[in-house]
Amino acid sequence: MTEEDDRLFRLATWTISEILKKKSGGQVIDRIFMSSVLHDLQKLKNESSLDQKQLAGASIIVSARVVLPRLSLNEKAEVCQFYKEGLFLLTTFEGLPDFRWKTIEPLFHMYLEAIPQCETAIMARDFFNLLVWILEKLAISPTVCEDLYSFRSCITIGRVFHNVLEIMGKPNLDLILRKTAVSFLARIIRQCPPGGAPAVSLFVSGLLGGLTKIMTQKTTNASVITDLLAIFKNAVLLTFSNGAEKFDQSKINLEDYPPEMHYVFKNQNEEWKEARAGHIKHYLEKLLALFVIHRNDGVRFEMCEVVIEIQEQCGEVIGEELYGILLSMHMHLKYDDFEKFRQISEHCLALVDSKRIRDDFFYKQLDLQITRLPVETRSGQGNRSLSVLAALLDGLGPNIRLMCTSGSQTMELLLRSLADSIEINLKQLMIIGDAPLNSVSEAMQRYKLMHNINSSQVECVCEMLAKHGGIEIIAMVQQLMREESPKKQSTYHVLLGHLLGALNPEKIPSDDPIVVMLAEYMIKETNRSCLIRILDDSKPHTTDNEMDVDMIIESLSLINLALCMRFTKKNANRTHNSGISLVFWTNRHTDIPFFQISTECLCTILIQTNSKVWIVREAAAFALKVIAVDSDQDITELISMYSSHILNRVSVACSSSINYHLAPVLMIAYLQNGRVSYQFDVIKVIVEKMLYALDMNKQKYTYALLRALNEFMCALNKDYPDHQPLPPIEDQEEDQKHRPTPQHIIVEKILLRTKHMLSTDHLPVQLICLELLKGGLELLKHHDDMLLPMIHQNWAGLMSIAGRKDPNSFVLMLDVVVFMAELSGDFVHNKILKELYPLVEANYRELMSRGLSKNTPSYESAKKTIKSIPRLIVYSKMAEEDAKKTYYTVLDESDVVYSPLTIYRDAEKYKMDQYFESGEISFT
């Protein structure tokens, strides 16, 4: 080598010599000196050959044994870059003769031991980076790398583990420094060759314990936890996997190793080998408790991967030790929000191939969860606990039915625990959406639960109970419900609704005694709890706005009753379709026939469609929808199928001295949901019975009867629009008049029997009679022989309403009079001109004398008067002169100063001016 060629080597050796001279003379190695040297090295490095670089780099690395012990911590920091340059110059350690791990070990050890002493994070990171560069050179130097992981050098591995864990155990250190340390530790494990596993295994217990301690610190960053979990996994797989080389003490000659190694070797005895699986299990249990439910998905996923891969690859050592952890992971992840975790859950369960262990685990955890559930619910952990419970029930599978059939105390405690944990939030019931309910699940979700419990989690638990417990679980809930207070009964009704919704009726025999007993019980309880709130004329009208437990029970009972009907409808439909209407097919376990049970259910639900409580009314409407959808019919077809039986109950109630008040309620519900034309003859008889009751009951339940008659009138107009009279009989020459139909006749009877009620002082009755009159006139409009007498006979009642000047009834009265004028024309001309006008004028003047406020009954009455005047004039064919002397003067009143009414008055006055000029007017 020429003098020109060895400049890089001479600079390296000169630098080492200068450093030693300076230290011998008591001088400090400063940054200026090292910067100058590094500058020269960089310059010569680009001009030197590969051999010269190798030689210079080796000389720098070898000098560490002599130089570094003499340097202070700060001086080591200054020369750190000098040693990095030495590593850069070396392509690989393999190219140098006799270059082994012992050659580079001093450099590695000096900086490794210096790291915990560093005063700044920057200095410590620089030292770590130097060690990483050493590892990178080892990665491409197999021989030297094997030296590092041999028994002779294994103390270095132990010191790496100790120092890195010491740094990681200080949460106040710089995060970047801690991540650098983690990266360095991960590389030490990852770079270990298969033959080095026994050396690492000497210290792996301490490593795993240290990693666990660090990860369980509350201040540890989530990304750091993820990296440490990966290190934990790789360390276990390296040393304990099925194909890994294991430590064999019999092959070790202690005399070949330093005395400090003897204790380490002797400690790896058979007792330790047997306990190592237990150690891993212990560490994983601690980690699992924190990380399987961690808020960071990356941490959760890495935790799952650790357990699964250790079980799969270390089965010979681990055996069944991790089965409990795998089952615990399955329990927590079975109903996770993310699909990948649900797949991991199934993978965990598949790894546990012992049914005995699975069953023992699930039974033990079920008992534990039953005890914990109420407490965890009230601490805000209810949703997670319910998901765990559902997973346990699914894991037990067929054992659930066995426990239900045998009346197991565990199942009873489970149901009681659920009832104690679930509580309906009455305040949140008022916060609901307007979207229609399309499923049982949506209906149950409207009953918001306390403690932030999600109804879907309760539904999931009930699905598992129904899937594996069958109809027997229903019997247990029914039995427990009977013994509880109303508040607790509401909770059982929630459970019962979810359970009935989850059961498949096709898989349950229709003659199952539990089905019949359940239907009977639900009918009885629903009829008992769902109080019939009918407006009694003798009592004040009140409206229930505040929710209470009884209302909740009533609404839930209706939904559950509809779900019960799913189990009886098969035989009920079969009975009905066979043409049998009076003789029912009777179940062998009970004297109540299936179709009778279904009819009882339907009647109970129909009655509650008229409840004054909105939540009960909505529940009844949804229950009807459930039954109809389940029968592949719409609601009208469903009611029609049961029409003869429903109307029979109405007819019987009409004749009852006790329950006759139920007749109008059930009649209204039938007419609102069915078709009057299907059973007109039967309904006509019922209407006549109601008219008789209307005459005889001395004002009690008058309003309910009138509502039923009004609903009947609306149904007639709906089913018989523009109803025409029958043509004259051809062979009767004397009487050529059109004949009334049965519909005309029954309407006439109703109007004749209710006309006197227009004069009542009771406002609700007065208003319903006005609606009834208008509906009756609509049906009679094409038969003048009945229409005109009805107008004449009801006129006096209308005038009595006009004379009272009540703004509520006055508005509706004007509607009826305008409708009479539209139908009869000049028949009511004189009545409108001479009888009605003075009352309208007096009422209007009195209203104008007040200070009217918008959106009040008085304001609406005044507005209705203004808007009705043109129609009264036109429909009654009033002459212009008469109109301008009477009604027109109301529109022309100069004292109308209330601006909104002035707008209406001017608009209607303009219409009349145009009508008097052209003879045409539009009331569009």
TrEMBL record:
InterPro entries: ARM-type_fold, TELO2-interacting_protein_1, TPR_TTI1_C
SUPFAM superfamilies: ARM repeat (SSF48371)
Residues covered by the TTI1 C-terminal TPR domain: 730-842
Highest rank taxon of the organism: Eukaryota
Pfam families named in the record: TPR_TTI1_C
GO cellular component: cytoplasm
Protein known as: TTI1 C-terminal TPR domain-containing protein
Source species: Caenorhabditis nigoni
Lineage: Eukaryota, Metazoa, Ecdysozoa, Nematoda, Chromadorea
